[in-house]
């Protein structure tokens, strides 16, 4: 079939749908609800009910799960998304009575939806220790007919309209409830059909019903026609994409990238648009997993380590409180849901940037001297690829590494500099996902410099997203490519098939990956992937030999001078020798006098010092204090120092805590740098310092600095609360909420340690 006939068919179908009268609701298959659970996990106020069940919709072949958390007696109309966002769970009147159970879901798009009423007379219960009872619904013994109500509107709607909705039966299978001695009552709001009004039925605690009819504004014929035309264009693009995809599959290509013809559609299966490779901590569960991973490397150790057990033991001994990270995670999850906060994971598709956008990124990169801090691509080599129209040719005519390098580069530049007007309409996450689809094919090709560039860019992009495990794996690939390409050794300019520029760029990539490898090694206290004995560690001639203000402030950059990440110079990847402290001190003395960390990390530092401070300068200062704490904390990393063992002179433990204090003061002074995009870059510095100061507070509650240190932690908690303020619709960024709750819990326990001393 020709393209023109496909378009005509799509347009004819859409037009006929628009012109046809609204059909009556067809006979629908029963909606099946399974695994219904209602539980009151704790009787400690505020009491919270956990409601969950599974829904199978045979009409749409959909299986989804719905759940809600509700503080007992909380008024108000609340909506919860099921795992399938097309369905919603509504609890407009809260939870009151578990013995009579009104239950249902509605479709989020406003199409066929309603409510179900289920009699609660057929529960069979067995007593248990926790919860007090577990009950199963006897569906076969129930004589009550459960009804699912669908609301459809007449062609014309007026204020006196009366709906006569058809009925949709519900089957209930394997339903359970768990409770103590408190009642549960749920009610589901019924939304209207796709056109017209909506019927809502509410039942209050006295079982009196209130029926409300809400009118939905109808679109004009012109608006509906415009919407239909837009939908037609989407369908045309999809069909063309599928057609091109079929052609490519016939050629035997396992990994596809888009053919850039006149159609803007991607030549990939439609299902790929639903894939999501990137960690997204805007989702609460993802953020919680990331948070738990980070704090395990902030002084707590892993969940089963002796280090974490010692931490719990110290808290119990010094404060009388019981603390457990897993219990904290459960409690903070309940609290988040109880407050009706929302966290929505971004739906990320797969998009391929055009050659014009990549060209803009390359010119921006070169014009602003970004090679100085991100030596991730060879500008001339990438320009050659763009001149050859690599992205506009069929995929089989170019290497996957070439395409991945260009696409990943566009993703990184448009992400870091997303506020530039030229990149306002870019979608960097979708670009990076497109580059990730090329990874299998790229790794099966013979490696070259573009392969190393692409993998390095992917690693740098993913690293600050909160789940660095994936970035570590990509770094491992990059390190192997470094060895395979000989980047760990200095290449001579006259070596066969190597130009001086290529050799210099290869070494620049080596040093960049070397610094990132050191960063991971320092943060996790693990050996680096790159063995120094296997490398030439002579710095390139273009490396800035002396630290200057360009390292700390917003200054013009030059691609002819490399400013490597500071971690490569920090001597604390294995801080077990007193010589490391001297090296770190010498490094600090090499900074300009007015750029040293101690100048900034005070409450009295003038504000003008921070005006032109760059993110790079902030990272150098925080890295310094982090390494200082690591060096002085190395001797006590596996045991807890007792106050009696400290001498009158400053001990390593006290110097470690002083470094933590300085870190928190510094973070407070540069708080304008911390936002959703940078939080995970600084999370480990922040959480490590918080835990160190907390450790000091409960270990030495009689310290003269106790009040000041406690105030510092309270300020950090307040700052996180400010960052995590929910929007008007309840949306919030979960990492801020988690960090705030964690710091506030530590502050509370620290107060207990002081009160125990004062009470004796």
TrEMBL record:
Tell me where on the tree of life, at the top rank, the source sits.
Eukaryota
The residue ranges crossing the membrane are 679-698
Keywords, in A-Z order? Coiled coil, Membrane, Nucleus, Signal, Transmembrane, Transmembrane helix
What sections of the sequence does the record tag as coiled-coil?
218-245
Give start-end of the signal peptide: 1-19
Q: What InterPro entries is this protein classified in? A: AtrR-like, XnlR_reg_dom
Biological processes, Gene Ontology terms = DNA-templated transcription
Which Pfam family, any one, appears in the UniProt record? Fungal_trans
Q: Which residues form the Xylanolytic transcriptional activator regulatory domain?
A: 471-546
GO molecular function ontology, one term from the record: DNA-binding transcription factor activity
Quote the protein name from its UniProt record: Transcriptional regulator family: Fungal Specific TF
What organism is the protein native to?
A: Penicillium desertorum
